[in-house]
Each structure stands twice: as C-alpha cells, then as structure tokens.
Description:
Layout: H1 18-33, H2 43-63
InterPro entries: DUF2277 (IPR018735)
Protein name: DUF2277 domain-containing protein
Organism: Thermostaphylospora chromogena
Amino acid sequence: MCRSxxxxxxxxxxxxxxxxxxxxxxxxxxxxxxxxxxxxxNREAFDRAVDAVTAxxxxxxxxxxxxxxxxx
Length: 72
C-alpha cells in the first residue's frame, strides 16, 4: 500500500524519532485520503487524522515485543 513508509520497529530501525512516526502517519493519511495537501476545508480533518495515526503508531511501537530481544 504505502511502499515509501519504512519499517519502524526493531530490529529494522533502532532509533525511531517522533519525526519518523509522524512522517509515516502523514504518508499513510495522504495515501488513504488521496490528498497530498488537502484543501482548506479539509485541513482540520486531515490534521486530526495524522495526529490519531501518529498516536496509534507510537502506542503500537511501544507495545511490540520482538522475539529474542530483552525487554526495555
């Protein structure tokens, strides 16, 4: 679906920043909505979606346990 979104979980990426998570969320929302940049009347909905996907992604990454790794 979104081939340009990189995998953020270990062991693929050890140092994931908030910017990485937000960039992935933005790319996802762009793909799903079909808008690279939404019109003014859609901006609020677009931004809320990016915020929600960012939060869900951060929660997911913090909850994942990778087999063979030690808990943090």
